[in-house]
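User: Could you check the structure of this?
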Amino acid sequence: MRLRVPRFVKRFLRIYTRVHVPFFAAALAYYALFSLLPLLFFLVGLFGFALRRSPALLADFEAQLVAFTRAALPASADLAQEVLGLLTQGAPSFTLGALALLAWLASHFFAALSYALSVIFGGRASGVRGRLVGLFAPLALGMGLLLLILLNLGLGLAQRFLPQGALQAVAGGVLPYASTAGAFFLIYRFLPRRPPPTGPALLAALGVALAWEGLRRGLPLLIPRSQYEVWYGPLAGLVLALFGFYLAMLLLLAGAVLLRSLLPDQAQPLEG
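Assistant: Sure, the predicted structure tokens are below.
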């Protein structure tokens, strides 16, 4: 697979512009942003279940909530009891309703992601297959992301007890990078209708994971939150979340275009 750099760049730009990568990235970013609200309700429901099962936690939370209510809203003395009753008694409805809405939004998100990747790789996913992918991908990739988060937390905890040297560098840098590259590889290899070969998919996943680590470390330095709070006020968090989701989806789809550029033209004809 020997490609001269100018020809490769032309192929990359041609595919990037033809499949409208920024449009798909913006749509996927909105889907991801809309998933935050049911996710928040789901976490609130889980917290309500925890309060119901632990009397000590309930008493401590009630004391803190009453103190906060008296300090912030002296005229609303009963607000703390109303919030506490809503959390404990409404936990089942909160959790089940938020979980159903989260599953519905996640299925649409992964169906849209599968469609975008299928367009990039030369075949648009059918409606039935796209829906099946949308139903099963949240469970599979969600478990993978959960394991990734737990792995990173475990590595961060274990890193404190490791001696300085190569072992700490592996736990703090190499393993998180490898897990991120593995997540990108699974997305590129199994979500498109016409999956690419394993070798190019792994190569693209490694490159995108490296760019992802650079984005994750450099983005807070490039866009300080205080500056956006001056510009957007209370909406700063929402704007930053949307911008972060957009950059993440743009990077994911740009990696797919990079992978498509590595494949021969005659292998998978591009539909636009």
